Amino acid sequence: MSLNVRPILSALLRNRTGAVLVAMQIALALAVLVNALYIVVQRVEKMQRSTGIDVDNVIVVATSGLNDRYDSVAATRVDLDYLRGVDGVVAASAIGGIPLSDGGNAEPLVTTPDGNRADSYNSFEFDEAALDALGVHLAEGRNFRHDEIQPPLTKEDAARPIAQIIITRALGERLFPGQDPLGKVVYDSLKRPSTIIGVVDPMLGAFVNSPHPDWVYLKPRAPTTFIAGVNYFVRTRPGARDGVMRVIEEHLNQTNPDRVIHWVRPLSYFKNLSYLWDRAMSIYLLTVTALVIGVSTLGIFALATFNVSTRTKQIGTRRAVGARRRDIVRYFLIENGLITSAGVLVGCALALATGYWLSLHYALPRLNLYYLVGGVLALWGIGQLAAWQPARRAAAVSPAVATRTV
Amino acid sequence: MLAYYTQLAFRSFRRNPGLSALMVLAIALGIAVCVMTLTVYHAMSGNPIWWKSERLYSVTMDNWDPNNPYHEQPNLPPPELTYQDARHLFGSTIPQRKVIMFSTSGDISAAATTPARPARTRFTTADFFAMFEVPFLYGGAWSARADDPPQPLIVLSREENEKLFGGLNSVGRTVRWNDHEFRVSGVLDDWFPRPRYYDLNGGHFQEPDSVYLPFAWGIAHEQLNDEEADCWRPEVINSYPDYLASDCVWLQMWVELPDASSRARMQAFIDGYWAEQRKGGRFERPRNNRLTTVGQWLRDREVVDNDNRLLVGLGFAFLAVCLINTVGLLLAKFLNGAAITGVRRALGASRRQVFIQHLIEVGVLSLLGAALGLGLAALGLAAIHHLYAAAHLFHRGGYQELMHFDPIGVAWALALAVLATLAAGLYPAWRVGRLPPAVYLKSQ
Amino acid sequence: MLKMKDVSKIYRADLIETYALRSFSLEVAAGEFVAVTGPSGSGKTTFLNVAGLLETFDSGSYELDGTDVHALSDDARSRLRNERIGFIFQSFNLIPDLNVQDNVDVPLRYRRLATSDRRERIQSALELVGLAARMKHMPSQLSGGQQQRVAIARAIAGDPAFLLADEPTGNLDSLMARQVMDLLEQINDMGTTILLVTHDPELAQRAQRNVHLVDGQVSELQAYEPRVRAAAPLGETAARA
Q1: Predicted local distance difference test score (pLDDT) of residue B308
Q2: Coil, helix or strand for C169?
Q3: Pairing assessment for the beta strands C33-37 and C209-214 based on DSSP bridges
Q4: Using 50, 70 and 90 to split pLDDT, how confident is the model at B204?
Q5: Least confident among B138-152, B418-432, C113-127
Q6: C97: contact with B, CB 8 A cutoff
Q7: Chain centroid to CA A194
Q8: pLDDT over threshold 80, residue A323
Q9: CA proximity to C213, closest of C47, C50, C58, C7
Q10: pLDDT, tens digit, for every residue of A70-96?
Q11: Which residues in B lie closer than 8 A to residue A346 (C-beta atoms)?
Q12: Chains touching C, CB cut-off 8 Å, 3+ pairs
């Protein structure tokens, strides 16, 4: 049984307009589908990448002093002692800066005293319990010692040097490419040296929407209070977080009248907030893609139906001279298939061109060909599916139509 | 004839209700997605003041070290000015509005007896509020006269007012800031543009300013910004006047210049001052005095999100699909009615009249689609606003801009919808006019 | 009134030329009732299309009511068609979703007449065909004969120079057919020229003159006696339909 494509093709070419319109829609839909999906997957990967922090089990408590009697060091010590004793708590610490919150401190570091201070890196104020409180893995070297933790900065004493710091491995690669950063010395904006005593890996800092959120370094110092208050970070056993949140919020609100609790939030709150745009983008992309495919499908369906209705006489005649229902269906599916294939072909070129342009202007990696193949198959299938019902309707046309004159 | 053709259009819709509904829906969806995307694009392109952003300019001069460019951006001058430069430039009468400001932290309380809390403070001149279209809930800003001599007036953010006075109208009441007394002149409504384009210090997650105080008062009381001092010259700074006279940069300056000529004059003014100062030994770097619009400012400081143009592109791609769809469906619909069109031709309608009749039909279709589309867009934007209002991103002013659906924008959107659809309908209307009436009269 | 001289119409399909009309000549004087007959394939349809300005012709000349139609633009031809010719089709060709009144209105609309003027014309045209009472009815609510009479009203409402009827009774039973022909004769009596295209010789006999077409050419002309006037007034005949 031959497909007999040529007569169908020549009939189609004689009446091109409708076919061209359908093909154009398919082409656009393919370009949109492939690229949108690709971008969405990138976003999802970004949101799901490893942070190095035990996000689901960490609670952040924001506090600050209410009056002159407030002594941040003492208050912090009392509160942390309490927190560490709460059932379900694994570790607690006072940290300056909130990881994954899309905002924080950045200061320059260079490898030589007169180095060009071109880049600033995200920094946090850690105590000796902070790594534990975040669940960050220390890959090399050692943690800060209790005696190394400096008291908080004050307005008068705002430019104190730091002798030791811990950095992320990524920052190590950045500052000392190919070498082991442990033990090396870096300099701050006032040319004072700090020794790298430890390397953590992995860890994301605050600026999760920047190209290098893992360029982070940690300072051993109690949080600076004259800009913001003191944030406590509490890590709980898996599953215990929500219960612990309630308990500690109630308790902390009642103790220490000189210290106020602004809020108690899970660290995941900040992570979700920082990724809100990515999530919204993904939803938008998926929605519009779905709409594009939906509108195209409906359009193909409507046009196919119309095509059938104008050719009832021809169909009837074919049936009258011996075509079976199957043959009619096959005829229309082949015709539609030719159009869909043309559309898919053009769509491929369009998708590749768009993908290339996107990669140039938006720093996206080049389009993965698997997406293209998947898109082609999907759209070809959809294009044919849309014409299925009209083709069946065509097959139902009675052969008697051939002899009717009115 | 227009009324007749419109009548015929509605009859035609009634004859093919399914097809007509599909077309209106497709156009409406295309318009809705486009309009929503464009609005969100404006709101989220990181340009919270997009309707005015080309009239607002940041003023910067490159007074930096001749041996080293300013560290963050090698071709750009420092984002802030020295006190001397800001003071002098502020004296120009060319700008429609002008502002110099810095931010710091201070301790605030409602009375001497209640404990003080730290509050983000902005010292600014009076034009700030009008220039950046800051909404007031109660009262208003201090007048420009309050800058000189400086009066102890204070403007509170809505949140700060809730903390201090439980949200009541506190205009006229006193507030203590760093142990000084100020009188409340106004309370702001929710306002937190993201990003805080006029002061990009603090990175993305900038803390909102809680209180606003007159700039002159700050200088008179030796207030400083609380960022690390940004200086390059090894000069001796032992006192506040020394700091004011130094080459340290710490003040932000913005001007509102309504047209190209005032912009040119302002640039000339700045360049003239620069030349003068250079003769006196300052400004050793090549001339780099800039008036930067908000949009460019955000791009320079790499705050603008590239994503947004993608969205707009996608929105238009979808509109294109909808319009191509419409062309196909219109063609089908018109050709389906070929027999009737043939009768009309036989009865004396010229090709032009048939063309116009069908174009009017497309026009009615496009108006219906546009109306529905705008309605859908408004619903969609309200939904987004509602959904994301809970998150700080949209609350506090940044996404009030989502609802900045100004009448000009709406008119543009409507025009786009109708014109695009008419363009889509041109070909089918033309095709149906060319049909030879004879053929269609015989075949019934 | 109508002067066709040596009109030829050629259909070209690839390399084959078909002469649908071959040096066809015809003169119709005002007030005449002429029938054009011929077997299928003789060119009757082509003649109809050319005479009705629905198609152009390739050679010869055609003068309609004093106007040479040869070099006219589509706009001008449409106007001529609208003002001078009244069409009556075999399959009535009423617009199905317009009522009787609006159907008769269609050609008048293209003339930009005042609303009152149009309404008057529609009223008198429908009265003439005896269907004034059915003004608001839809075509689907009328019998075949009534539909054709509405079509006739539509054709005469604009006071055309001549009526062009294509097998007007082809889809009607004999009773309705007779009524329609009576109506046409009545209209002709009132002074309107009528050109009737048909393959039915009986129908052709009711005309004053016959033109017989074979292979695109006139083969014979026959003239008949002036026909016998209708026995009963039209109104009664209509009521019985």
Answers
A1: 67
A2: coil
A3: parallel
A4: very low
A5: B138-152
A6: yes
A7: 35
A8: no
A9: C47
A10: 888 888 999 999 999 999 999 999 998
A11: none
A12: B
Q: Which of A72, A306, A362 to mutate to test the interface with B (most CBs of B within 10 A)?
A: A306
Please, what sign has the CA dihedral across residues C29, C34, C38, C44?
A: positive
Average pLDDT, chain B: 83
- Domain extent listing, chain B: 2-45+306-442, 56-300
CA distance A123 to A127: 13
By C-alpha distance, the chain B residue nearest C110 is B349
CA-closest candidate to residue A32, choices C82, B320, B67, B412: B320
pLDDT, residue A118, reads 58
Q: Name the residue in chain C with its Cα closest to that of B7.
A: C98
What residues pair up with C223 in beta bridges, in sequence order?
C209
pTM above 0.80, yes or no: no
Complex ipTM value: 0.75
Contact B350 C78 (CB under 8 A): yes
**Cβ-based neighbours of A19, under 8 Å, separated by 6 or more:** A12, A338, A339, A342
Quick one: tokens of A189?
């904006």
Residue B202 half-sphere exposure toward CB, CA atoms < 13 A:
20
Q: Look-up: residue for tokens 């307005």?
A: A155
Which residue does chain C place closest to B11, by CA atoms? C97
Question: Rounded to whole angstroms, how far apart are CA atoms C48 and C36?
Answer: 9
Residue in B430, B421, B427 with CA at minimum distance from that of residue B29: B421
Rounded CA-CA distance A214/A205 in Å is 6
**Interchain pair B343, C93: CB under 8 A:** yes
A47 touches chain B (CB under 8 A): no
Query: What structural domains does chain C harbor?
Result: 32-56+73-239 (3.40.50.300)
B44-58: per-residue pLDDT in tens? Answer: 555 677 778 889 999
Say whether pLDDT at A308 is over 70: yes
DSSP letter at B403 equals G
C222-230 — which CB contacts under 8 Å span 24+ positions? Answer: C227/C185, C229/C185, C229/C189, C230/C182, C230/C185, C230/C186
What does B334-368 look like in DSSP terms, one character per residue?
HHHTHHHHHHHHHTT--HHHHHHHHHHHHHHHHHH
Which of B176, B200, B205 would you mutate first to test chain A, the one with the most A CBs within 10 A? B205
Bond preceding residue A202 cis, omega within 30 of 0: yes
Tokens linked to B101: 């400001």
Contact B347 C87 (CB under 8 A): yes
User: Residue A7's Cα: distance from chain center in Å?
Assistant: 50
Domain ranges for chain A: 5-48+276-403, 71-257
Does position C73 have pLDDT exceeding 90, yes or no? no
pLDDT per residue over B374-404, tens digit each?
A: 889 888 888 877 766 555 443 333 444 555 5
CB pairs under 8 A between A and B: 137
How would you classify the pairing of strands B174-177 and B180-188?
A: antiparallel
Q: Which residues of B touch C74 (CB under 8 A)?
A: 350-352
Q: Does the pLDDT value for residue B205 go beyond 90?
A: no
Give me A393's structure tokens.
């309707």
Identity of the residue in B19, B33, B329 whose CB atom sits nearest the CB atom of A288: B33
Residues A134, A165 contacting (CB under 8 angstroms): no
Task: List CB contacts (< 8 A) between A60 and chain B.
Answer: none
Contact C45, C65 (CB under 8 A): no
Confirm or reject contact between B202 and chain A (CB < 8 A): yes
Q: Answer with the residue of higher pLDDT: B360 or C71.
A: B360
DSSP state of A178: T
- Chain A: nearest CA to B73, how far in angstroms? 8
Determine the distance from the C-alpha atom of residue B151 to the mean position of all C-alpha atoms in its chain, rounded to a whole number: 32
Contact A154, A186 (CB under 8 A): no
